[in-house]
């Protein structure tokens, strides 16, 4: 204790005390070094932490910089999108304006077309009413003429003696002159036919009336009866009989009979020459006067290039004039022109409408055309039942072109489908 006191007083110069003092100082210095080392260690730890924090801050700064670059890129894209949107808005506004203007023009044009269609419909209604009145009047006149004719024929039969039973080859009848029963029958028949206009069923009486003057060799009656036989108008189709009647009319000097026979027989057509030109000229003259049958035949010549240069547009024009007067063959051929686009715009709906008008008049070719459209779904939904009905009516009137299709429809469905597929593939 005293020694420590002595050393603490630092007043003792003895070696032992001095050594102890140095030791104590060294111990104190060591303690200070230890403290300093701990402080350095703590500073090192703090520095390491600061470095780590700095590194983390640098990473966050890099991420922030990346996000800033992404944000900048998106801003640029947003600005570009805004520019595109504005351009699109301007373009859409321009298109909308053009569409509105076009719609206004189309609406105005449609309004004009509708007004024109209404005017045409009213005109046609008035024409139909007038035609109905005219037909009623002519039908009454025809009935009166038939009654008068029947009376005259009965009187003629009572006055004329019967031909001997042994007579096999009677002499040819003299030409018909005005005022005879044959001439009256022809006039009555032509009033019923009404220049080719009107439903077909009344034409049966016209055919009955035509047979009497035709049997007496009247060329006009021979021609008209042949036309009825070819068209199936009031009688079953018989082209062979029609050709025979036309040949007889040609012998008797009928110009139109030459044209009829040339259309029906191409071999004969190649041999007639100037006579065919005269027949076409006669049809053109009568067509210009509004004769529906002549308009049809003139259209046929244009359509097939018989006696004229082939011109489907001109053919369609004459078919339309004939069809507008209710001529069933004209309606059928005009429908075919619209179905295939011959000389007119292709329009299946209009073609079917014309075929139906023709079929409703009882024309076998119109019935065949409508049945074909029902079979193949042309201008309407496919309907086998309806097709069979129309084709059966057509075949029943002697239309040979309708027979193959009706036979195919009567086959089992699978065979019919294969046939139809083969037909569609050409």
Explain how this protein is built:
- With 426 residues, the protein is mostly helical.
- 79% of the residues lie in helices and 0% in strands.
Oligomer: single chain
Strand content: under 5%
How many strands? 0
The overall average pLDDT, rounded, is 81
**What is the first-to-last residue Cα distance?**
137 Å
Helix tally equals 17
Q: What structural category characterises the helix and strand content?
A: mainly alpha
Radius of gyration, in angstroms, nearest whole number: 54 Å
Q: What does the overall shape look like?
A: rod-shaped
Q: What percentage of residues falls in helices of 4 or more residues?
A: over 70%
Order of helices and strands: HHHHHHHHHHHHHHHHH
The main sheet comes to: none
Keywords:
79% helix, 426 residues, mainly alpha
Question: How do the helices and strands line up, and which of them pair or pack?
Answer:
Layout (H helix, E strand, L loop, with lengths): L1 H8 L5 H145 L21 H13 L9 H13 L3 H13 L7 H13 L3 H10 L1 H7 L1 H15 L3 H13 L7 H13 L3 H13 L7 H13 L3 H13 L7 H13 L6 H8 L2 H12 L2
Helix pairs in contact: 1-2, 2-3, 3-4, 4-5, 5-6, 6-7, 7-8, 7-9, 9-10, 10-11, 11-12, 12-13, 13-14, 14-15, 15-16
């Amino acid at each position: 204790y005293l020694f420590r006191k002595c050393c603490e007083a630092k007043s003792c110069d003895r070696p032992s005390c001095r050594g102890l003092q140095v030791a104590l100082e060294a111990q104190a210095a060591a303690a200070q070094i230890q403290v300093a080392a701990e402080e350095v260690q703590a500073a090192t730890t703090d520095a390491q932490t600061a470095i780590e924090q700095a590194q983390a801050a640098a990473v966050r700064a890099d991420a922030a910089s990346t996000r800033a670059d992404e944000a900048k890129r998106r801003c640029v894209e947003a600005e570009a999108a805004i520019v595109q949107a504005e351009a699109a808005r301007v373009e859409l506004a321009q298109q909308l304006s053009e569409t509105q203007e076009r719609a206004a023009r189309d609406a105005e044009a449609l309004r004009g077309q509708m007004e024109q269609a209404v005017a045409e419909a009213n005109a046609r209604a008035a024409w139909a009413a007038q035609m109905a009145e005219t037909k009623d009047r002519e039908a009454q006149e025809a009935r009166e003429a038939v009654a008068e004719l029947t009376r005259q024929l009965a009187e003629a039969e009572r006055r004329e003696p019967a031909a001997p039973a042994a007579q096999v080859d009677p002499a040819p009848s003299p030409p018909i002159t005005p005022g005879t029963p044959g001439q009256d029958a022809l006039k009555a028949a032509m009033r019923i036919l009404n220049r080719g206009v009107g439903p077909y069923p009344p034409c049966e009486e016209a055919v009955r009336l035509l047979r009497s003057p035709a049997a007496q060799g009247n060329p006009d009656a021979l021609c008209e009866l042949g036309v009825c036989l070819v068209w199936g108008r009031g009688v079953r189709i018989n082209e062979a009989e029609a050709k025979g009647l036309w040949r007889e009319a040609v012998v008797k000097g009928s110009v139109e009979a030459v044209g009829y026979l040339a259309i029906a027989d191409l071999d004969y057509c190649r041999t007639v020459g100037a006579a065919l030109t005269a027949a076409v000229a006669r049809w053109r003259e009568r067509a210009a006067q509004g004769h529906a049958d002549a308009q049809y035949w003139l259209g046929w010549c244009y359509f097939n290039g018989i006696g004229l240069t082939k011109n489907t547009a001109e053919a369609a024009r004459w078919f339309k004039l004939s069809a507008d007067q209710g001529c069933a063959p004209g309606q059928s051929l005009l429908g075919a022109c619209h179905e295939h686009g011959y000389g007119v715009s292709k329009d299946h709906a209009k073609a079917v409408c014309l075929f139906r008008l023709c079929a409703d008049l009882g024309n076998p070719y119109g019935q065949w055309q409508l049945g074909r459209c029902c079979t193949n779904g042309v201008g309407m939904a496919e309907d086998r039942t309806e097709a069979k009905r129309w084709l059966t009516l057509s075949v029943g009137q002697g239309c040979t072109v309708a027979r193959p299709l009706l036979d195919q429809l009567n086959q089992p469905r699978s065979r019919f489908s294969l046939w139809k597929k083969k037909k569609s593939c050409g």
